[in-house]
Amino acid sequence: MSFGGFGGGAPMFGGGGHGASPGGGLPFAGIPSELQEGVDKLLAREPEHADPDAVFNYTGADERDRNLTLRQLVLRHWRLGLWAVVLVSVVSVLGQVGPLLIEYAIDHGMPPQAHGSFAVVAACAGVFALATAISALAQRSQVRASGRLAAGVMYDLRVKVFAQLQRLGLDYYTQEKAGVVMTRMTADIENLQQLLQDGLAQLVAQALTMIVITAILFAQNVELTLITLALMVPLLTVSTIWFTRASQRAYLRVRDAIAGVLGDLSESLQGMRTVAAFNRQARNVVAHRSVVGEYQDASNRTAQINAIYGPGTQLLGYLGQGALLAIGGEMVLHHQLPLGALIAYFLYLNRFFAPIQLLVQQYTTFQQGQASVVKLRTLFRTEPNTPQAADAAVLAPVAGEIRFDHVSFGYFPGQEVLHDVTLAIAPGESVAFVGETGAGKSTIAKLITRFYDPTAGRVLIDGVDLRTVTLDSLRRQLGVVPQEPFLFAGSLRENIAFARPDASDAEVWEAIDAVGLHEVVERMPDGLDTVVHERGQSLSSGERQLIALARAFHARPRVLVLDEATSNLDLMSETKVEAALDVLLEGRTAVLIAHRLSTAMKADRIVVVDGGRIVETGSHEELVARGGRYAEMYETWSAQLELAA
């Protein structure tokens, strides 16, 4: 059994590398020798996790997940579900033996009956005890089966949800709050786990109990049973229909409200530095109180619904028992019904209404679970914004020619960011895109990497439309260095070898040396095994950017996209990064989204973007001599440098 995250060798992100604790804190000193034997025994008993019923692809969730239902979740583990139902049936049937034995003991074993005998009473008591013991054993097995069923379903479902989240495009994460996304993986799935582990078994048990009791009541006395059902069933049916509809709406509102709470919390935690800097703590508390208030209102509504339905059905039960006592008592007085039969009937009727109360409680859990299923089904039905075609071909190794063919694009309908862009980039050519903020430079980079598809026109690489090739074969040949490099909690080795985790240390060091990161790694306390904390907060901006460049070099891309990779760096860090860029760009097609003209000037060609259109293209010298938009930008930049000097 392997606990490594990559090829069984390197530890997983978040697990800390060699010399790291699982939380990424203090170094892990190893397992003491006196405890090693116990650890080995524990690992030997550790079960293997079967492959989940989830295969990652770029085309979208399969039809079963898109039409997700609670029944479908259970049927995927039908053997465990069937065994749990059998055990629940045993418990339900054996649980109703008691009143029949009591009736028999009263009518045949107790004075003033003609054949009264203590032996009859003792035998009934023995059978009662045996039935109780068998029922307890069956219930124990049922709880274990239900637990395994819930664990299996949750395992599959968590993997499927995570795969869907990996599949969705950048537009989904731009529009949806991180806390809302987390709700799908946490609160919604936990609701289903509670339902599958306890709720469904209880629902089935109580429903079977009511069926068994109804059959026994008819066998005991048809007249009394018909009277009871005529009094109770219509009222129970109407109230249950109302409760079903009202609670379904209420619990959907609760799911939306808790997603809002977690979304607001996540946003506040991620922006804590900004919150503190602008003294927004008190106002944020007031705003969060409003969000939590919406959740409270939704929860209060569900409580009101339960407060009406629960006590209402309980009242109907008490009224039914009162009517039975009056009618049955008169039948006993007129010798139309034995006393033991009336007592047994009364006990059964009391047991008939007890499951109704339990069903009300479990139905609340059921409705919560159903609301979670609706939310998860909505997630699975969300389509990736860059779906992979069913007949997509594998992109052969590319030379690196990129062409924009009358490309237009907008993030929102009717709001175009790029307008009819036509451009060709030759293999091995480096092209820098410059322009004002919001001109559309970064959008061009996102279209090349196929984070988005154009709304009109085509983006081609080596003459092949990006929409016709598999995303895996495309992105294996692309390297991306964003403005804010993202580093994962894990070791330096894991972050650099992110694209090829099975690479050797020699290959990792090759990337390190190529971008000038050797000195940084050497001064780290554990070298390549040094833990990088979440988002690389323990490193400087320049160090994070160099690691991102080493990651891109290590991926061996044919096309490199750098989105303002030096815009947030100080002069010293910028010098180091630009030296690394000289090595990284050699022999590759490169697209540079340049904020600083010093970076743009290194490119073979400069493209000026203004208002979503290409207004100029040429070398630095050609554009300055032309006296157009780029010349204005260069003049302004040069003046700022003189003032800074």
Provide a short characterization of the protein structure.
With 645 residues, the chain is an alpha/beta fold. 60% of the residues lie in helices and 10% in strands. The protein has 23 helices and 14 strands.
Characterise this structure.
β11, α20 and β12 (589-593) form a beta-alpha-beta unit. Helices cover 60% and strands 10% of the residues. It has helices at residues 33-45, 63-66, 70-75, 78-94, 97-109, 118-167, 170-175, 178-185, 187-220, 222-270, 272-277, 281-333, 339-380, 441-448, 471-475, 492-496, 505-514, 518-522, 541-554, 571-585, 597-600, 620-626, 629-644; strands at residues 4-6, 10-11, 402-409, 418-425, 430-434, 456-461, 464-465, 478-481, 490-491, 531-532, 559-563, 589-593, 605-610, 613-618. It has 23 helices and 14 strands. The strands form 4 sheets. Strands 8-11-12-5-13-14 form a 6-stranded mixed β-sheet, sandwiched between helices. It folds into 3 domains: 1-49 and 488-538, no CATH class; 63-380, ABC transporter type 1, transmembrane domain (ABC transporter transmembrane region fold); 402-484 and 559-644, 3-Layer(aba) Sandwich (Rossmann fold). The chain has 645 residues and is of the alpha/beta class. α4 runs antiparallel to α6.
